[in-house]
Design brief:
With 249 residues, the chain is mainly alpha-helical. The chain is built from eight helices and two strands; from the N terminus they run αβααβααααα. The chain has one domain. The termini are far apart.
């Protein structure tokens, strides 16, 4: 009986993996066409006038388009993968999982907007200015500029999922609200170190621009998690009191 269950589980997982692979291939085909427009938008919005974008090999431009298409495919399918995992971990995932997924999508979009509109323009302006002031001509390859901008935007969009992760851990009792408050100083230091590591800007401008919203998001996650936990405890206490009251004869 156990061997049969294992076989059915493996067969089920194999079917899901095949579906995911087919979906990624189809989405990549679609996004490969869209990636050309994304490159044009990045070039128009973020490339300084003094910079020239070049391709050093024949395959560099199409390979950058393919990489962008693959990343977009993975991003598109990620919410469905998360829902699939939660569905198999929780017997009643619908009402409880959907708010988490939509919250994650919102934070991801917010992170992308902040990075693309505020963080990257400042970072690119500072780094390009340093090169130009040194008398160096600014020639960037498609991969080093376009794909760098795209991947950086996606990564920082994922980084902005921090409050969702912290809230989920607190609500599910993996960490306590008190420990999150007590260790906030260490989190601040960790956030600043992380921002310094991932921002290529040698000045503290980009580092502070990334650290400040992440610290605010961390504090927001503590507040939200505390509110949810308190509301849940109040509900449980009221339910317990109701069950302990004697029933009318």
């Amino acid at each position: 009986m156990k061997m049969k269950e294992i076989y059915l589980t493996i067969h089920y997982l194999r079917q899901q993996i095949i579906k995911i692979a087919v979906a990624i291939i189809l989405l990549t085909s679609v996004y490969f066409y869209v990636s050309g427009y994304i490159i044009d938008i990045i070039d128009r919005d973020l490339k300084p006038k003094e910079v020239q974008i070049i391709a050093t090999t024949m395959l560099e431009y199409p390979m950058v388009r393919l990489k962008i298409a693959i990343v977009l495919s993975l991003i598109t399918i990620l919410p469905f993968l998360i829902y699939f995992v939660l569905k198999n971990l929780d017997k009643k995932p619908t009402k409880r999982s959907i708010p988490w997924i939509f919250s994650g999508i919102f934070l991801f979009i917010f992170g992308i907007f902040f990075t693309y509109k505020i963080l990257l323009p400042t970072m690119i302006k500072v780094l390009t200015g340093i090169a130009l002031e040194s008398g160096v001509l600014a020639y960037y390859t498609v991969s080093s500029f376009i794909f760098f901008v795209f991947v950086t935007t996606v990564i920082f969009g994922l980084v902005f999922e921090l409050p969702l992760v912290v809230t989920w851990l607190a609500v599910n009792n993996y960490v306590s609200i008190e420990s999150l408050k007590e260790k906030r100083r260490y989190m601040y230091v960790g956030i600043v170190i992380f921002a310094a590591a991932v921002t290529a800007d040698p000045t503290p401008i980009s580092q502070l621009m990334l650290s400040f919203p992440l610290i605010l998001l961390y504090e927001l996650s503590i507040f939200i998690a505390g509110f949810i936990v308190r509301s849940r405890d109040i509900h449980r206490k009221s339910a317990k009191i109701k069950t302990s009251l004697p029933k009318d004869q």
